[in-house]
Amino acid sequence: MTGVAIEYSGTGDPARSLALLWRTREKPSRRGGDLSVERIVRAAIEVADADGLAALSMRRVAERLGVGTMSLYTHVPGKGELLDVMLDTVYGETARPQDARGGWRGRLEQIARENWALYLRHPWLLQVATTRPPLGPNVTAKYEYELRAVDGIGLTDLEMDAVVTLVSGYVHGAVRGAVEAAQAAQRTGMTDEQWWHAHAPYLEKVMDPRRFPLAARIGTAAGQEYQAASDPDRAFEFGLARILDGIEVLVAGRQAGGPPAGGLARAVTDG
Q: Could you give all domains of the chain from N- to C-terminal order, each with its CATH number?
Protein backbone atom coordinates (compact mmCIF):
# COMPACT_ATOMS: atom_id res chain seq x y z
CA MET A 1 0.00 0.00 0.00
CA THR A 2 1.39 3.41 -0.96
CA GLY A 3 -1.40 5.75 0.11
CA VAL A 4 -0.56 6.20 3.79
CA ALA A 5 2.76 7.05 5.42
CA ILE A 6 3.58 4.31 7.90
CA GLU A 7 6.89 5.71 9.10
CA TYR A 8 8.30 9.13 9.86
CA SER A 9 11.85 10.27 9.30
CA GLY A 10 13.65 12.23 11.98
CA THR A 11 12.30 10.20 14.90
CA GLY A 12 15.67 9.01 16.18
CA ASP A 13 17.87 10.63 18.78
CA PRO A 14 19.26 13.82 17.12
CA ALA A 15 22.84 13.39 18.27
CA ARG A 16 22.98 9.70 17.37
CA SER A 17 21.19 10.18 14.05
CA LEU A 18 23.52 12.94 12.90
CA ALA A 19 26.60 11.05 14.06
CA LEU A 20 25.41 8.02 12.12
CA LEU A 21 24.45 9.99 9.01
CA TRP A 22 27.80 11.76 8.87
CA ARG A 23 29.76 8.72 10.17
CA THR A 24 31.49 10.66 12.93
CA ARG A 25 31.44 7.84 15.48
CA GLU A 26 31.49 4.64 13.43
CA LYS A 27 33.27 1.84 15.23
CA PRO A 28 36.03 0.13 13.25
CA SER A 29 35.53 -3.55 12.38
CA ARG A 30 37.74 -6.02 14.13
CA ARG A 31 37.73 -8.34 11.12
CA GLY A 32 37.09 -7.80 7.44
CA GLY A 33 33.82 -9.73 7.52
CA ASP A 34 32.36 -7.92 10.51
CA LEU A 35 29.29 -5.77 10.31
CA SER A 36 29.40 -2.15 9.22
CA VAL A 37 26.83 0.61 8.90
CA GLU A 38 26.97 0.24 5.11
CA ARG A 39 26.20 -3.49 5.18
CA ILE A 40 23.33 -3.01 7.60
CA VAL A 41 21.82 -0.16 5.63
CA ARG A 42 22.10 -2.00 2.31
CA ALA A 43 20.42 -5.04 3.81
CA ALA A 44 17.63 -2.87 5.19
CA ILE A 45 17.10 -1.25 1.78
CA GLU A 46 16.93 -4.68 0.17
CA VAL A 47 14.26 -5.77 2.66
CA ALA A 48 12.21 -2.62 2.03
CA ASP A 49 12.60 -2.90 -1.76
CA ALA A 50 11.46 -6.51 -1.74
CA ASP A 51 8.65 -6.47 0.81
CA GLY A 52 7.81 -2.88 1.68
CA LEU A 53 8.47 -0.80 4.73
CA ALA A 54 6.00 -2.74 6.86
CA ALA A 55 8.33 -5.73 6.66
CA LEU A 56 11.34 -3.77 7.92
CA SER A 57 12.58 -4.57 11.41
CA MET A 58 15.93 -4.94 13.08
CA ARG A 59 15.26 -8.67 13.36
CA ARG A 60 14.49 -8.97 9.65
CA VAL A 61 17.68 -7.11 8.72
CA ALA A 62 19.71 -9.35 11.04
CA GLU A 63 18.21 -12.45 9.42
CA ARG A 64 19.17 -11.18 5.98
CA LEU A 65 22.73 -10.64 7.16
CA GLY A 66 22.86 -13.96 9.01
CA VAL A 67 23.71 -12.40 12.37
CA GLY A 68 22.05 -11.95 15.73
CA THR A 69 19.68 -9.03 16.10
CA MET A 70 21.55 -7.51 19.05
CA SER A 71 24.75 -7.29 17.00
CA LEU A 72 23.16 -4.60 14.83
CA TYR A 73 22.84 -2.23 17.76
CA THR A 74 26.62 -1.97 18.01
CA HIS A 75 26.46 0.05 14.78
CA VAL A 76 22.90 1.40 14.58
CA PRO A 77 21.08 2.66 17.70
CA GLY A 78 17.59 1.73 16.49
CA LYS A 79 15.08 1.59 13.67
CA GLY A 80 14.48 5.34 13.64
CA GLU A 81 18.13 6.09 13.02
CA LEU A 82 18.35 3.23 10.52
CA LEU A 83 15.48 4.65 8.48
CA ASP A 84 17.17 8.05 8.31
CA VAL A 85 20.37 6.51 6.94
CA MET A 86 18.37 4.42 4.45
CA LEU A 87 16.76 7.58 3.13
CA ASP A 88 20.02 9.46 2.94
CA THR A 89 21.64 6.53 1.14
CA VAL A 90 19.03 6.17 -1.61
CA TYR A 91 18.89 9.94 -2.12
CA GLY A 92 22.55 9.63 -3.06
CA GLU A 93 21.56 7.58 -6.13
CA THR A 94 20.18 10.46 -8.18
CA ALA A 95 22.35 11.53 -11.11
CA ARG A 96 23.62 15.09 -10.93
CA PRO A 97 25.07 16.04 -14.31
CA GLN A 98 26.67 19.46 -14.45
CA ASP A 99 25.85 19.99 -18.13
CA ALA A 100 22.08 19.45 -18.31
CA ARG A 101 20.74 21.19 -21.41
CA GLY A 102 17.81 23.56 -21.71
CA GLY A 103 18.68 26.16 -19.10
CA TRP A 104 16.85 26.20 -15.78
CA ARG A 105 13.84 24.44 -17.31
CA GLY A 106 15.91 21.58 -18.66
CA ARG A 107 17.69 21.26 -15.33
CA LEU A 108 14.39 21.04 -13.43
CA GLU A 109 13.08 18.47 -15.93
CA GLN A 110 16.16 16.35 -15.35
CA ILE A 111 15.75 16.63 -11.58
CA ALA A 112 12.07 15.70 -11.75
CA ARG A 113 12.77 12.61 -13.88
CA GLU A 114 15.59 11.51 -11.60
CA ASN A 115 13.27 11.75 -8.60
CA TRP A 116 10.56 9.86 -10.52
CA ALA A 117 13.00 7.05 -11.28
CA LEU A 118 14.15 6.98 -7.64
CA TYR A 119 10.60 6.37 -6.40
CA LEU A 120 10.10 3.59 -8.95
CA ARG A 121 13.29 1.87 -7.74
CA HIS A 122 12.34 2.30 -4.09
CA PRO A 123 8.52 2.47 -3.78
CA TRP A 124 8.75 2.36 0.01
CA LEU A 125 9.88 6.00 -0.11
CA LEU A 126 6.20 6.86 -0.55
CA GLN A 127 5.52 5.27 2.83
CA VAL A 128 7.80 7.66 4.71
CA ALA A 129 6.70 11.12 5.81
CA THR A 130 9.77 13.33 5.45
CA THR A 131 8.55 16.69 6.72
CA ARG A 132 11.44 16.31 9.19
CA PRO A 133 14.07 15.11 6.72
CA PRO A 134 17.23 13.22 7.59
CA LEU A 135 19.92 15.88 7.64
CA GLY A 136 22.64 13.75 6.09
CA PRO A 137 25.32 14.40 3.46
CA ASN A 138 23.38 12.94 0.52
CA VAL A 139 20.18 14.81 1.35
CA THR A 140 22.21 18.00 1.67
CA ALA A 141 24.08 17.39 -1.61
CA LYS A 142 20.81 16.66 -3.41
CA TYR A 143 19.25 19.87 -2.11
CA GLU A 144 22.36 21.86 -3.08
CA TYR A 145 22.26 20.45 -6.62
CA GLU A 146 18.55 21.13 -7.06
CA LEU A 147 18.91 24.71 -5.83
CA ARG A 148 21.74 25.22 -8.29
CA ALA A 149 19.28 24.52 -11.11
CA VAL A 150 17.49 27.78 -10.39
CA ASP A 151 20.40 29.86 -9.12
CA GLY A 152 21.14 33.12 -10.90
CA ILE A 153 17.81 33.47 -12.74
CA GLY A 154 16.41 36.31 -10.67
CA LEU A 155 14.53 34.45 -7.95
CA THR A 156 14.79 35.27 -4.26
CA ASP A 157 16.22 32.70 -1.89
CA LEU A 158 12.75 31.74 -0.65
CA GLU A 159 11.45 31.46 -4.20
CA MET A 160 14.34 29.16 -5.11
CA ASP A 161 13.45 26.93 -2.18
CA ALA A 162 9.75 27.08 -3.13
CA VAL A 163 10.46 26.08 -6.74
CA VAL A 164 12.51 23.06 -5.67
CA THR A 165 9.81 22.10 -3.14
CA LEU A 166 7.08 22.51 -5.77
CA VAL A 167 8.80 20.25 -8.30
CA SER A 168 9.76 17.57 -5.78
CA GLY A 169 6.27 17.64 -4.25
CA TYR A 170 4.67 17.27 -7.66
CA VAL A 171 6.81 14.22 -8.46
CA HIS A 172 5.99 12.68 -5.08
CA GLY A 173 2.27 12.90 -5.82
CA ALA A 174 2.39 11.99 -9.50
CA VAL A 175 4.58 8.92 -9.16
CA ARG A 176 2.10 7.23 -6.84
CA GLY A 177 -0.07 6.19 -9.78
CA ALA A 178 2.87 4.59 -11.58
CA VAL A 179 3.98 2.74 -8.44
CA GLU A 180 0.46 1.49 -7.73
CA ALA A 181 0.01 0.35 -11.34
CA ALA A 182 3.23 -1.65 -11.16
CA GLN A 183 2.26 -3.17 -7.82
CA ALA A 184 -1.23 -4.04 -9.06
CA ALA A 185 0.20 -5.85 -12.08
CA GLN A 186 2.67 -7.71 -9.89
CA ARG A 187 0.12 -8.79 -7.30
CA THR A 188 -2.77 -9.65 -9.65
CA GLY A 189 -0.81 -11.06 -12.57
CA MET A 190 -2.79 -8.76 -14.89
CA THR A 191 -1.50 -5.65 -16.65
CA ASP A 192 -3.55 -2.45 -16.81
CA GLU A 193 -4.16 -3.14 -20.50
CA GLN A 194 -5.46 -6.64 -19.76
CA TRP A 195 -7.67 -5.29 -16.98
CA TRP A 196 -9.08 -2.63 -19.27
CA HIS A 197 -9.90 -5.07 -22.07
CA ALA A 198 -11.65 -7.33 -19.57
CA HIS A 199 -13.83 -4.54 -18.21
CA ALA A 200 -14.43 -2.24 -21.19
CA PRO A 201 -17.07 -4.40 -22.96
CA TYR A 202 -19.19 -4.63 -19.80
CA LEU A 203 -18.78 -0.92 -19.07
CA GLU A 204 -20.16 -0.08 -22.51
CA LYS A 205 -23.28 -2.07 -21.72
CA VAL A 206 -24.06 -0.47 -18.37
CA MET A 207 -23.00 3.16 -18.87
CA ASP A 208 -25.69 5.40 -20.33
CA PRO A 209 -24.03 8.16 -22.40
CA ARG A 210 -27.17 10.30 -22.07
CA ARG A 211 -26.75 10.36 -18.30
CA PHE A 212 -22.95 10.75 -18.35
CA PRO A 213 -22.20 12.44 -21.68
CA LEU A 214 -18.79 13.84 -20.77
CA ALA A 215 -17.62 10.78 -18.87
CA ALA A 216 -18.73 8.54 -21.74
CA ARG A 217 -17.13 10.62 -24.49
CA ILE A 218 -13.89 11.54 -22.78
CA GLY A 219 -13.53 8.23 -20.95
CA THR A 220 -13.89 6.36 -24.23
CA ALA A 221 -11.31 8.55 -25.95
CA ALA A 222 -8.86 8.18 -23.06
CA GLY A 223 -9.41 4.43 -22.78
CA GLN A 224 -8.82 3.91 -26.49
CA GLU A 225 -5.65 6.01 -26.37
CA TYR A 226 -4.21 4.59 -23.14
CA GLN A 227 -5.56 1.05 -23.44
CA ALA A 228 -6.05 1.41 -19.69
CA ALA A 229 -8.03 3.51 -17.26
CA SER A 230 -5.13 5.95 -17.02
CA ASP A 231 -1.55 6.51 -18.14
CA PRO A 232 0.61 7.64 -15.19
CA ASP A 233 3.65 8.34 -17.37
CA ARG A 234 1.73 10.59 -19.73
CA ALA A 235 -0.01 12.31 -16.82
CA PHE A 236 3.40 12.96 -15.25
CA GLU A 237 4.80 14.53 -18.41
CA PHE A 238 1.70 16.69 -18.89
CA GLY A 239 1.69 17.90 -15.30
CA LEU A 240 5.44 18.55 -15.24
CA ALA A 241 5.17 20.73 -18.34
CA ARG A 242 2.35 22.75 -16.75
CA ILE A 243 4.32 23.19 -13.51
CA LEU A 244 7.32 24.44 -15.49
CA ASP A 245 5.10 26.76 -17.52
CA GLY A 246 3.95 28.34 -14.27
CA ILE A 247 7.51 28.71 -13.00
CA GLU A 248 8.43 30.31 -16.31
CA VAL A 249 5.85 33.04 -15.69
CA LEU A 250 7.47 33.74 -12.33
CA VAL A 251 11.00 33.79 -13.77
CA ALA A 252 9.96 36.08 -16.63
CA GLY A 253 8.40 38.47 -14.14
CA ARG A 254 11.53 38.58 -12.01
CA GLN A 255 13.78 39.10 -15.02
CA ALA A 256 11.52 41.96 -16.13
CA GLY A 257 12.14 43.62 -12.80
CA GLY A 258 8.90 42.71 -11.06
CA PRO A 259 8.90 42.53 -7.24
CA PRO A 260 7.97 39.39 -5.28
CA ALA A 261 4.19 39.04 -5.50
CA GLY A 262 3.04 37.04 -2.53
CA GLY A 263 4.68 33.72 -3.22
CA LEU A 264 5.20 31.15 -5.93
CA ALA A 265 1.72 29.62 -5.70
CA ARG A 266 0.07 32.89 -6.71
CA ALA A 267 2.44 33.35 -9.66
CA VAL A 268 1.75 29.82 -10.88
CA THR A 269 -2.01 29.99 -10.55
CA ASP A 270 -2.30 33.52 -11.95
CA GLY A 271 -0.11 32.58 -14.91
A: 7-26+33-91 (1.10.10.60), 94-256 (1.10.357.10)
SS (H, E, C) the chain: CCCCCCEECCCCCHHHHHHHHCCCCCCCCCCCCCCCHHHHHHHHHHHHHHHCHHHCCHHHHHHHHCCCHHHHCCCCCCHHHHHHHHHHHHHCCCCCCCCCCCHHHHHHHHHHHHHHHHHHHCHHHHHEECCCCCCCHHHHHHHHHHHHCCCCCCCCHHHHHHHHHHHHHHHHHHHHHHHHHHHHHHHHCCCHHHHHHHHHHHHHHHCCCCCCHHHHHHHHHHHHHHCCCCCHHHHHHHHHHHHHHHHHHHHHHHHCCCCCCCCHHHHHHHC
Task: Give the pTM.
Answer: 0.88
Q: What is the pLDDT of residues 14-62, one digit of tens each?
A: 999 999 999 987 655 554 458 999 999 999 999 999 999 999 999 999 9
